[in-house]
Design a protein that fits this description.
binds adenosine-5'-diphosphate; alpha+beta; 546 residues; 5-stranded antiparallel sheet; binds magnesium ion
């Protein structure tokens, strides 16, 4: 049988126990909890509220909630304050709002963010009789959110700057787009970037916005340590001033004439070396916010790196240009020298040898019959002279095929491949398409030298049975195709092996083509033969005719 609990006992203890019980529960909440009646008077509050008000119950119970939280004399209302309690009375449903509550006065005044939630308390008829207010301090969360948003803004800004400055390697393009982006981020329209001339150690504007030409001229040649920008560069530290026109460090009066006030000078540092200064200015006294200061610092680093890169790229391009000029000079001088030696050998040495041989012939014929031995010796000398002559003709040809100058490319190539490839046992097929014509000497020489190197490679490395050379004369360009059916090779390997001298032949072929704005492509794989195609435009600028 179930044991009956005496009813009287429960009835007697419940109300007292319930009040204490519920009070302890609401006291255990960290958030501030109050219950307000229809007049906004506080009828109930938890320990967190008491603690805030100095644990004095009389200061809390019976007071208006708006007095306590907002020090107001009448209920909160928009636009100052959105009251969720009102909302509950109106709708009968829970409501929520975020308020800023201020404590203290003057400079000591501190703001806290609170989240206010209001819930209706209803009677048995379902009518709202009171409202429960739960106030939670969300300052920390808000600050965190603010910091995340700030960090996000900075990241986005940095990303935008990074994209802007990395889109080009041209210094002026970089500086112009970086400045525009910075001004957009700072919501301003006045500023500029000064670059440091390392020789004179002075700063001058390279790009600017919203500044007059007189101002820019008036600032030119700013010494390190002079004025705000000069100081920022010298000290490698940004300087922010509220009113530059009244700053005692000012040295150039144009700043006052220009009417500049709020001013930021941020040094552009790369590896602790000053490259310039970025100035952001305003005609008003609006201060730079700390977050702007931080952002400008990070942005300036990126711009400095981009400036440095652009400088390096410029230097690289200058060196490449110099290398090309030097190469051009070397090739031209070499050709000139070869031609000079070939001419010398032809005009003097070979003439002298020819006449020696002829004279010997005459002497031999004039000698009496009895001098048989002497005759034989002279004949021997004569044949040596003729062999030497032949050798000299070969050298002359190697140095500079006279055919190239006299009859042009096709004749010279034909003679060259027949003598060389033919002699090496490689079957050769030479084909000419288009209207054969004389080309600028420079072009004929380059093409001939390229073919010469390609055929030497076929003989030395390919083990080919046959080779095919095609010369195609177009209106705007000349094309050459050289193909062999030999063993082929790994191009990357051959080109990267230049250290030990290998690969220089292939490289020089490419260089010769590029000097004439042409293009040379090599295709080869082990076991698959080699194809070289060359195209040289015929409408290029000119230059010396060597
Ligand atoms: N037609 C070819 N057939 C096979 N191998 C070739 C051919 N041309 C070049 N090579 C390979 O490429 C290398 C580089 O050629 P090159 O630059 O002319 O230098 P080099 O002829 O002085 O070795 C050669 O050593 C050879 O291994
Ligand atoms: Mg070679």
């Amino acid at each position: 049988m179930r044991k009956e609990t005496p009813k009287t006992d429960t009835k007697k203890r419940r109300p007292q126990q319930t009040a204490v019980y519920w009070q302890s529960i609401i006291n255990s909440i960290d958030d501030q909890l109050t219950v307000v009646d229809r007049d906004f008077r506080i009828v109930q509050a938890n320990a967190a509220v008491m603690q805030r008000e100095g644990a004095d119950k009389s200061k809390v119970i019976g007071r208006h909630c708006y007095e306590l939280s907002h020090a107001r004399i009448k209920p909160c209302a928009p636009p100052d304050c959105d009251c969720p309690v009102n909302e509950v009375w109106k709708t009968g449903k829970p409501a929520k709002a975020v308020h800023t509550h201020y404590h203290g006065t003057g400079d000591e005044k501190e703001g806290t963010y609170v989240e206010v939630k209001a819930f209706p308390l209803k009677n048995s008829n379902g009518d709202v009789t009171q409202v429960v207010l739960i106030v939670r301090d969300i300052t920390e969360e808000k600050m965190m959110e603010w910091r995340i948003l700030e960090a996000n803004r900075n990241l986005l800004a940095l990303n935008a700057i990074a994209n802007t400055v990395s889109a080009s390697l041209d210094l002026d393009t970089i500086l112009n787009s970086a400045l525009d982006k910075v001004l957009e981020l700072m919501k301003g329209n006045t500023g500029g970037i000064l670059l440091l001339d390392p020789e004179t150690e002075t700063l001058s504007y390279r790009v600017y916005r919203g500044l007059s030409e007189e101002f820019v001229r008036g600032i030119a040649g700013l010494k390190l340590g002079e004025g705000i920008a000069g100081l920022a560069a010298q000290q490698k530290q940004p300087i922010y001033v509220d009113n530059i026109s009244q700053d005692p460090r000012l040295t150039r009066y144009v700043v006052v004439v220009e009417g500049l006030k709020a001013f930021a000078s941020v040094p552009l540092l790369s590896k602790n070396k000053v490259l310039g200064v970025m100035n952001i200015a305003s005609h008003g006294l609006n201060r730079f916010a700390p977050e702007d200061v931080q952002l400008l610092g990070s942005i300036s680093n990126q711009i400095a790196v981009a400036i440095e890169n652009a400088g390096l790229y410029e230097e690289l391009q200058r060196k490449e240009e110099m290398r090309r000029e030097l190469l051009h000079l070397v090739i031209t001088t070499q050709e000139e020298e070869r031609r000079r030696i070939a001419r010398g050998l032809h005009d003097e040495t070979s003439q002298a040898l020819t006449s020696l041989a002829v004279n010997l012939e005459a002497v031999v014929d004039a000698l009496p019959l009895a001098t048989g031995e002497l005759k034989a010796r002279l004949k021997k000398i004569q044949s040596i002279a003729l062999m030497t002559l032949e050798e000299i003709h070969r050298v002359i040809w190697e140095l500079r095929p006279t055919l190239l100058d006299d009859l042009g490319l096709v004749a010279a190539v034909q003679s060259h491949v027949e003598t060389h490839l033919g002699a090496a046992g490689v079957k050769v097929h030479l084909e000419t398409t288009g209207d054969e014509k004389r080309l600028p000497n420079k072009v004929e020489t380059a093409i001939f030298r390229i073919i010469q190197e390609a055929t030497t490679n076929i003989i030395r490395h390919s083990n080919a049975e046959s080779a095919c050379i095609n010369l195609e004369f177009g209106d705007t360009s000349v094309r050459v195709h050289i193909e062999d059916d030999g063993r082929g090779f790994d191009l990357d390997e051959a080109m990267s092996a230049t250290k030990n001298g290998r690969g220089l032949g292939l490289l020089s072929m490419k260089e010769r083509a590029e000097l004439l704005e042409g293009l040379l492509k090599i295709k080869s794989h082990p076991g698959q033969g080699t194809q070289i195609s060359l195209e040289i435009p015929l409408n290029w600028g000119g230059g010396s005719n060597v």
